[in-house]
What does this fold into?
Amino acid sequence: MEKKYIDLEVKVSIEEMKQIGEFCKEKGVNFSEWMRELALKEIEKEKKSEEQEDDFSSWVFII
It folds into this structure.
């Protein structure tokens, strides 16, 4: 299956862009791919957190 990509605008200050650029250069990563992977990890973490909350809602505690 062919992946299709869209352009995404991210607003950052010049100083922030310098920091991001240096980080990407040091790590040897492409900014777009790095941001994409970061976002997908956050989404997955959020889903897991929500699933854990749902699991607890079905528990019954007897005191």
Observations:
- Residues 22 and 28 are 10 Å apart (CA to CA).
